[in-house]
Amino acid sequence: MFFRLLEQALRWAVAALVVAICALVAAQVIYRYAVKEPIVWSEEFTTLCYQWLSYLGAALAVRYRAHYGVDFLVRFFGPRTRSALAWLEHAVVWTLGGFMVFYGWRIVESSWLQQYPTLPFSVGTGYLVLPIAGVLFILMDCAVFRERRS
From start to end of 9-107, where are the E strands? Predict the structure, then answer.
């Protein structure tokens, strides 16, 4: 139940970011060419939204194993080797998630006092997605692990 709710919340967040990016880019085009007064903060905010969208979308891809893989090679192996490779797959995701949490947090700390020129918040806000996505990678992989064990 927890994993389903988390996945649903993640889907809504990704969808909201896509809508926000599309709306903001459209508004920027209208304001720049029709109103002749561009929205000065829109480019930075769109980049920030895209940054969050990329990592949260990657966490969803972990849930569905939608990242690149070499599955054509795995088909030639027997069940024992496939099982070992599945464990290796989980280990890689957990290692990457842990790396993102640890080093992502260090980047957040080092950039927290910097401000965006046109936005009223810290540059660390953009990097905050790294440790959050690292945790989400691990949780989404736990959902896959649980599903495989059922």
Answer: none
